[in-house]
Amino acid sequence: MINNHIPSNHPRAKSLYIRNLLVTGFKSGLVVPEGLLAHGRGEAFDYLIGEHTSVYALHAIKAASSLLLLADHPVISVNGNSAALCAREMVELANYSSAFLEVNLFYKSRNREYLISETLKKNGANIVLGLDKKNSIDIIDLTSSRRHVDLEGIYKADVVLVPLEDGDRTSALIKMKKKVITIDLNPLSRTSQSATISIIDNIVRAMPYLVETTKKIKNMKRSSLEKIVEEYDNQYNLDKSIKLIRGNADSKLR
Ligand code: ATP
Ligand code: MG
Q1: pLDDT of residue 68
Q2: Between helices 33-49 and 13-27, what is the axis angle to 10°?
Q3: Does the beta carbon of 74 sit less than 6 angstroms from any atom of ligand 1?
């Protein structure tokens, strides 16, 4: 039994368990109600993907690890859902890739920023950017609260990991000549379509792979990491992810 409701042999136990993490996050103030709905959109795509990490997602993960390791100033942007689902992995990835963690919220409040920062710190983070108003600067071209970024973090970054992201910010960051990595179950979203590297997978499955891969290739020569990034084709990967969904749906036709 996972908590008092979900039998561990239930066919959808994993999916229910993930929901439970978000509901717990919602009750503690980490997650906003809109975050629960956004997760629902992701879940629908996960069902169509087959609820496993595809070979295309694994390719994207390897390219993403390489890009993070090659970066001069990598930053991992953390929101409520990602903190509720994988705070530990976010901190581990930051450690292996020497990246900064920054809290950046669409539905912004001081309390939620603080709670997310505390969650990251409880999971081993030393520094969490995005809370010090003195260091805050606005991204032009962006109207949502996501425009407030940290001068030492996203503003200065050359590579930004933005999981569960909104399309507007991805485009704005790309316009600022930054490389953007996203984790998004929807290969059709504006975010997936405009990012440099789109990992089409559930964040709960993708993050442990991202941590493990980064740890494994951390000491590779720069030239080998550059080759991995050069050989990676995001459009090809997106096309394959869409075909995977079509194939799964077609297999149910009688
Ligand atoms: P866009 O603004 O990029 O067009 P959207 O408006 O459809 O996307 P948002 O609500 O802005 O979606 O962002 C949430 C995104 O996160 C959705 O694309 C959803 O599929 C995805 N998502 C939600 N939960 C997860 C999860 N657990 N793992 C990966 N992706 C997820
Ligand atoms: Mg959106």
Answers
A1: 98
A2: 170
A3: no
* pLDDT confidence tier of residue 5, bands split at 50, 70 and 90: confident
Query: Would you state the pLDDT for residue 2?
Result: 63
Predicted structure pTM score = 0.96
Q: SS3 breakdown of the chain: % helix, strand, coil, rounded to 5?
A: 55, 10, 35
Atom of ligand 1 nearest to the CA of 37: 10
Q: What would the pLDDT profile of 218-237 be if each residue is shown by its tens digit? A: 999 999 999 999 999 999 99
Q: Could you tell me the CA-to-CA distances from 142 to 113, 162, 208, 227, 243 in Å, in that order?
A: 19, 15, 31, 33, 32
Cα 32 to ligand 1 centre (Å): 14
Residues with CB under 5 A from ligand 2 (ion): 166
Q: Whose CA is nearest to atom 20 of ligand 1?
A: 42
Instruction: Report helix angle 203-217 to 55-70, nearest 10.
Output: 50
Q: What is the DSSP letter of 71?
A: -
